[in-house]
Design brief:
Blueprint: E1 10-16, E2 47-60, E3 67-71, H1 74-82, E4 90-95, E5 101-106, E6 117-128, E7 141-146, E8 151-156, H2 161-167, E9 174-180, E10 183-190, E11 198-206, E12 219-220, E13 232-235, H3 240-246, E14 252-257, E15 264-269, H4 273-282, E16 302-304, E17 335-337, E18 341-346, E19 349-354, E20 369-375
Parallel strand pairs: 12-13
Antiparallel strand pairs: 1-2, 2-6, 3-5, 4-5, 4-6, 7-8, 9-10, 10-11, 11-13, 11-20, 14-15, 14-20, 15-16, 17-18, 18-19
The structure holds 2-acetamido-2-deoxy-beta-D-glucopyranose (NAG) (7 copies).
Protein name: Fibrinogen C-terminal domain-containing protein
Keywords: Calcium, Disulfide bond, Lectin, Membrane, Metal-binding, Transmembrane, Transmembrane helix
Pfam family, one: Fibrinogen_C
Length: about 375
């Protein structure tokens, strides 16, 4: 999000080096902590200070601020921030219906968690002035201020959900703009499952049972990754090695659920040699290996994630299928037990732990279900 800082009011708060004795006030900070170091130790003006800019009508939304308490006036809130010696990175000041304000001292700012800044009419968000306000970094870089010594760092803009996660450890799942080969691409990141950092590369759903031959699979390219929101998009696997070149892929994750089967599958390629080789096959970097068929070791290529309540793990014997077209590798037969349990999307088959070959007379073709594909 971009702001025109000049339209917001600008304040300076100074704390002189006096002995502040607050005692042990609930959830407030101990006094006598220096923030910006005075430039001249022998100066008569031996003080700590911050400059702040107000974003009126905004709040940087966090459920657990560093401190959260009522104050009689705004000055008191900003002074509390100064006393944290850099732990405080921004402030929310919420006007109470009674006299006074709710003062929230935050360990985050709009640079690391821009998505948390939302409008809220009774709140003002205070940014500590910093060098990033002058946009010193390159076009493809992100600026993160360091408030202690008033410097900044430029980071490459994230090119994957796992990099977003590193920059914004508290980010919640949702859509993010990442930079792929200099281009902005909006992607969905699962920031929750197994530590988060998963980029969704396929979201396919059947919302109604339909006993006719399903429509062709909705295959698209990297620029259209935001189409996962439709529940009707899967990335052309041919593009995965390209994606991998811009944003290394260590793991592939497969999720599916079909009420008619009744088990949630959520598994990820493991870090065993078989798991890594098979992951490299799925993302188009490795040729198919016939030893992946009828192989008792096949289940060791994957690990179950916590929400997987299926019984598949020790039962599958086959990974991938020979001679599959490169553009369908990721989602075509990721794992299977011949004629019984198949996982993935393939021509007219939509399988999730079942065997759903074309049998219109049986009417088991297009049954309600959801399939999700992720990389990390
Ligand atoms: C200024 O503050 C620092 C840190 O508390 C202290 O070491 C120094 O003696 C102070 N200087 C003056 C002139 O008070
Ligand atoms: C520090 O402050 C003293 C007293 O005000 C002054 O004489 C001295 O030149 C200052 N030093 C610097 C580096 O600004
Ligand atoms: C702000 O409130 C503090 C006590 O919370 C008080 O000491 C101070 O004088 C007040 N300042 C103004 C400008 O009202
Ligand atoms: C991505 O960038 C576009 C264009 O600036 C913007 O409209 C969109 O809201 C951004 N998406 C996210 C998730 O921030
Ligand atoms: C069932 O599938 C056919 C072929 O894909 C499609 O034309 C039809 O609209 C679908 N019916 C429903 C109710 O979704
Ligand atoms: C995936 O598709 C479903 C529709 O079937 C949709 O409700 C869901 O929000 C989509 N997931 C994402 C992350 O967009
Ligand atoms: C996948 O992408 C390749 C290369 O861009 C293209 O030739 C192929 O037709 C695409 N496949 C599908 C199913 O869209």
């Amino acid at each position: 999000m971009k702001f025109c800082y000049s339209i917001f009011t600008y304040f300076i708060f100074i704390i002189f080096r006096i002995n502040l004795t607050f005692g042990n006030l609930h959830r407030q900070f101990s006094p006598n902590i220096r923030y910006h170091q005075p430039t001249n130790q022998s100066s008569a003006f031996n003080y700590s200070f911050i400059n702040v800019k107000k974003l009126k009508g905004y709040i940087l939304s966090y459920t657990s601020p560093l401190a959260d308490f009522e104050v009689a006036n705004k000055t008191k809130c900003v002074k509390e921030c100064v006393k944290t010696e850099g732990l405080c990175k921004s402030i929310n000041l919420i006007t109470l219906t009674t006299d006074g304000y709710q003062c929230q001292i935050l360990a985050h700012d709009i640079y690391t968690t821009p998505r948390n800044l939302i409008t809220q009419s009774d709140s003002t968000h205070y940014i500590i002035t910093n060098k990033c306000m002058k946009s010193p970094c390159g076009k493809d870089e992100k600026c993160v201020p360091n408030y202690i010594d008033n410097t900044f760092n430029c980071y490459n803009k994230p090119s994957s959900c796992s990099e977003v996660k590193q920059l914004q450890p508290l980010a919640t799942s949702g859509f993010f703009n990442i930079t792929l080969n200099g281009k902005r691409v909006q992607v969905y990141c699962d920031m929750h499952t197994d530590g988060g950092g998963w980029m969704m590369v396929g979201n396919y759903s059947i919302t109604q049972n339909n006993f006719s031959n399903p429509l062709p699979l909705p295959v698209g390219d990297i620029e259209s990754l935001d189409q996962v929101s439709t529940g009707n998009f899967i990335l052309n696997s041919t593009h995965l090695p390209v994606l991998e070149g811009w944003s290394p892929i260590k793991e592939v994750r497969f999720f599916c659920y079909k009420p008619s089967v009744g088990e949630t599958m959520d598994f990820v390629t493991s870090q065993t040699l078989l798991g890594i080789n098979f992951k490299n096959y799925l993302i188009g970097k490795f040729a198919y290996t016939s030893s992946w068929l009828n192989n008792a070791q096949a289940p060791t290529a994957f690990q179950k994630l916590p929400d997987d309540d299926s019984s598949w793990l020790m039962e599958i014997y086959n990974l991938g299928i020979p001679n599959v077209k490169k553009d369908t590798r990721l989602w075509n037969h990721i794992a299977w037990l011949s004629g019984l349990k198949h996982y993935g999307l393939y021509r007219d088959r939509r399988e999730c732990g079942d065997y759903n070959i074309f049998e219109p007379q049986v009417g088991n073709l297009e049954q309600i279900g959801k399939w999700r594909f992720y990389v990390r």
